[in-house]
């Protein structure tokens, strides 16, 4: 699973609980996109979460 290159946000794990209180495994995936980013004057392809894109921590190429 991909992780954000800026904030290291990745997948989270836990339990899905049914109405009868039975537990099964669940995975929450973060919204990570593959984006071309300006880095040190050049462009690079990185995995970045949408919250980092929205906050302006990363400049798109």
Automatic annotation (TrEMBL):
Domain of life from the UniProt record: Bacteria
Cellular component terms per the entry's GO annotation: ribonucleoprotein complex; ribosome
Keywords recorded for this protein, A-Z: Ribonucleoprotein, Ribosomal protein
Keyword Ribonucleoprotein: yes
InterPro entries for the chain: Bacterial_rp_bL28 (IPR050096), Ribosomal_bL28 (IPR026569), Ribosomal_bL28/bL31-like_sf (IPR034704), Ribosomal_bL28_bact-type (IPR001383), Ribosomal_bL28_sf (IPR037147)
Single GO biological process annotation from the record: translation
One MF annotation (Gene Ontology) recorded for this entry: structural constituent of ribosome
Transmembrane regions listed in the UniProt entry: none
UniProt-listed Pfam families: Ribosomal_L28
NCBIfam families per the UniProt record, alphabetical: L28 (TIGR00009)
Membership in a protein family: Belongs to the bacterial ribosomal protein bL28 family.
Name the UniProt record assigns to this protein: Large ribosomal subunit protein bL28
Native source species: Qiania dongpingensis
Gene that specifies this protein: rpmB
């Amino acid at each position: 699973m991909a992780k954000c290159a800026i904030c290291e946000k990745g997948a989270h794990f836990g339990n899905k609980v049914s109405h009868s209180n039975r537990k099964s495994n669940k995975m929450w995936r973060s919204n990570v996109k593959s984006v071309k980013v300006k880095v040190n004057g050049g462009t690079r392809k990185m995995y970045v979460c949408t919250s980092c894109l929205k906050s302006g921590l990363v400049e798109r190429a």
